[in-house]
Amino acid sequence: MQTKPPKINPILFSLPGVLFLLIVGLVPIKFGYDYYRKAQHFMVHAVQIKTAVIRYDFNQACRGGSASESRFPVVRVPDANGNIQEVCTNVGSSHESYQRGEIIPVAYDPHNLTDLRENNFWGLWFLPALFFFPGLAFVLLAIFRLIQALL
User: Fold this and answer.
1) How far, in Å, CA of 56 to CA of 34, rounded?
2) N or C: at which end does the chain have fewer Cβ atoms within 10 angstroms?
3) pLDDT for 27-84, tens place per residue?
4) Cα(73)–Cα(35) distance, rounded to whole angstroms?
5) Does the predicted model carry a pTM greater than 0.70?
């Protein structure tokens, strides 16, 4: 006579997996939310202007970074004293994204020119989205697994 193995409660079997997915999802959601709040706070206090790309910096040295293969647009903006300064934007790419002389929107703090950002999705909202949406996918997967285990 063959005996059946004891039935494992599916909620108990999947609970560690659900908890793991929730943790893996909630941590990047927290980082994404923090980056979103920082970008939102920056935009409240930033000066927003449109300025021309004058050249490209290939190593982001004007932003205090290390050498890289990315090209960062350099623009001219007035500082807090009204003096015109050349500053790199925060979005670099492997190719020149804009023509020299092309007008682009930027946002910056006149007292801290190193915090100049392109006023578009890539310059402001890419980093929050990069963390938030994958985290959200893990949380939704955890909820789906929990519902599946309950049914």
Assistant:
1) 30
2) N
3) 999 999 999 999 999 999 999 999 999 999 876 555 555 556 788 999 999 999 999 9
4) 23
5) yes
